[in-house]
Amino acid sequence: MSTPLLGYVDRPGPLHTLTGTAKLVLVIGIVGAAMISFDARFLAALAVASIVLWAASRIRPGDLAVVLWIVGTFMVLNNLLIFAFAPGYGTDLFGTRHVLIDGPGRWDLTSEQLFYQAVVTLKYFAVMPAMLLFITTTRPPEFASSLSRIGVPYRVSYSVSLALRYIPDVQRDFRTISQAQQARGLDTSKRQRLGVRIRNLVSVLLPLLLGALERIETVSSAMELRGFGREKRRTWFDERPFRARDLVVIAVAALLVAGAIALVVLNGGRYWNPFA
Fold first, then answer.
1. Is 275 found in the same domain as 182?
2. Residue 44 in contact with residue 168, Cβ under 8 Å?
3. Within-domain flag for 173
4. From the CA atom positions of the chain, what is the Rg in Å?
5. Helix H or strand E encompassing 115
6. Quick one: pLDDT at residue 72?
7. What is the pLDDT of residue 205?
8. Does 24 share its domain with 120?
9. How far apart are CA 238 and CA 141, in angstroms?
10. In whole angstroms, what is the distance from residue 113 CA to residue 94 CA?
11. What pLDDT does 42 receive?
12. What keywords sit in the KW lines (predicted)?
């Protein structure tokens, strides 16, 4: 079977050896630091660190090709929409105006706007690799135990774990139903016109949705029969004790957040202004 669209990749590397809690705290630290600070230097350092983590994780870009394509498309679309609806936001933000290209109407390309949108793009490179790495290097049961360990109610933790666990199953069912429908003459490939492909795709999604609802009902009934949710706390089979490397990772996450807060104080705001 092919690699899941988004899920655990069983190719052990350095990140696989960390506890789920340590990895989760690291991701929260990276995301929190990126949200707090808009300093381009800090975001560039986070982006480089995320890319280095990716290189060391043994996760290949092909394992998440579809997800990376979706994220990349959204990133480009986000930048285009920012420029379309707020082409002067960078100028208003930094208080100066250096025109690079004299465009029609108010759509002049300025250094300030280009720099602002580069900062927005850096946020994607700083946050997304770390988040995807956490999902691909953490098994769903360990993910659930890590959420519970940081204080998330175990009912919510287990629900998240189930959702991630069934992504490969849904992907497999989609492939099976699609192949069955193609055998009946419903082609969803690029050879068909877009309208025909969409109509044929509905014939695939409907049984997929009904099968997913049936699976949800089965799992819910099984969990209810076993008394899930009756107790206020529960133990986890995949919960592992912290080791030195886990404590180091948690400390790094705390330092990232502290560094982002310190930069806000030093810069007198969330942005670093190179045009001042």
1. no
2. no
3. yes
4. 23
5. helix 111-137
6. 92
7. 81
8. yes
9. 6
10. 9
11. 94
12. Membrane, Transmembrane, Transmembrane helix
- Parallel, antiparallel or unpaired: strands 109-110 and 99-101: antiparallel
The parent domain of residue 54 ranges over: 1-139+238-276
38 lies in the same domain as 7: yes
What distance separates the 2 farthest-apart alpha carbons in the chain? 69
**Per the domain annotation, does 180 fall within a domain?**
yes
Q: Residue 134 and residue 156: Cα distance in Å, rounded?
A: 18
Kindly state whether residues 76 and 213 are assigned to the same domain. no
Q: At what angle do helices 154-165 and 167-183 cross, to 10 degrees?
A: 30
Q: Which residues does residue 110 pair with via DSSP β-bridges, in sequence order?
A: 99
The candidate with the shortest Cα–Cα distance to 33, out of 199, 268, 262, 275, is 262
The reply to whether 31 and 103 lie within a common domain is yes
Given a cut of 50, the residues of the chain with pLDDT beneath it are 1-2
Identity (one letter) of the amino acid at 152? V
**211 shares its domain with 244:** no
pTM, two decimals, is: 0.77
pLDDT at 1: 43
User: Can you tell me the distance from the alpha carbon of 266 to that of 113, in angstroms, rounded to the nearest whole number?
Assistant: 23
Residues 6 and 69 in one domain: yes
The answer to whether residue 148 sits within a structural domain is no
Residue 147 placed within a domain: no
CA–CA distance, 19 with 146 (Å, rounded to integer): 8
**Which pair of tokens denotes residue 270?**
């969330």
Q: By the 8 A CB rule, do 146 and 23 touch?
A: yes
Residue type, 37: S
Give the residues across from 271 on adjacent strands. 38
The C-alpha angle with vertex 120 and arms to 152 and 122, in degrees rounded to 5, equals 80
pLDDT for 66: 81
